[in-house]
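Subject: Sanity check before I submit

Could someone independently write out the structure tokens for this chain? I want to compare against mine line by line before I put it in a report. The sequence has 405 residues.
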Amino acid sequence: MSKFPSEIILRNEHKIVFVVMDGLGGLPLSKGGQTEMEAAKTPNLDKLVTKNVCGCFDPLLPGITPGSGPAHLSLFGYDALELPVGRGLLAALGIDFRVQPEDVCIRVNFCTLDAGGRITDRRAGRISDEENKRLLGIVREKLVAPKGVEVFLETVSEHRALMVLRSDQLDDNVADTDPQALNVAPLPAKMAGKFAGKDSYTTNLVNDLLEQVRAILATADSPANFMLLRGFAKKKPMPSFEEKWGCKAGAIAGYPMYRGLARLVGMEVVADPTEPAELAKAAAKHLPDFDFLFVHFKYTDKKGEDGDFEGKVTQIEAFDAAVPAFAELNAAALVITADHSTPAKMAVHSWHPVPVLIVSDLARPDDVKNFGERVMAHGGLGRQTMINLMPLVLAHAGRLTKFGA
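---
Independent answer below. Compare away.
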């Protein structure tokens, strides 16, 4: 999308509810079969599709598999290819950690290593929050940082944690130590980008800290005996959502990372339920206070990552049961979409385009009758990149005026 003409944005009372079913897109388990969306019974979503307009959008560019951070930035109308945001920063913002300019924020996964130092479980069996806190307490007590460097360790949820390194000597040009594969050793910290493979003060510090962590957790009597690091990031300035789109924005999200994404663009996080009916109730409660309400549903992605096709179908059906409550909000535009696809067949994020449904009195209905990828690909919105979605949403909400004379 070329530079958007911000002068055509209208500030009015028209409300937007923007629902993200995380990882919604899928694949058939076998050739000619149905995707999770197609296998799910979704009478309420089907009813909305029949009377409104839909399409399938590429989260970033065709063929590129996005992380959750860039995928959501694209949903919110930011050029994620020009504004890369590390996952560590999102984790920090998600738990309301007070990030300082000199901080390097890092997403941590507790993992399980075998006797040979190979990864057997990247999530350490999804340990409990309580076990996470216990292990971080042990590491905090024993970890020794060099003079002039502070190390903060905070629980996020389950196997996820946050590491923040605070020093004016540090940079965030560090590649992930998580190979995102099993039966291989964790990667050493090395510089990224044009200096890929080289060492720096920061990478040497990280490798020293990880050596200590391995020794400390070896005696902690837990399946979580090491840490994988991802998304090294400092906080960089970017325009707020309200500055960019003229909408006072709120967010309803149960998982820390998505609360972090909302805060990153200046949204006010107002509630943290995770179940569809509770999400709808929270939306009804808080919509009067905002122009734009971002609502995040995680479990479609979680079941996809677990490779659980039937479980993902069940979660789609559970969300469908709450759809009438979202429709009854009578927003000028109700959007139901996804940040990326997470097919259970692959058990990871994928590059496949995601469904987009816009419900509005200003929608030009298309011929699509079912909530599924194959048919929605032929909807009136067609196939385009996700960065184009926000202008379409504003237009369908009656929040854009004419451009030019």
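---
OP: Matches mine. For the report I'm noting this point. The chain has 13 helices and 13 strands.
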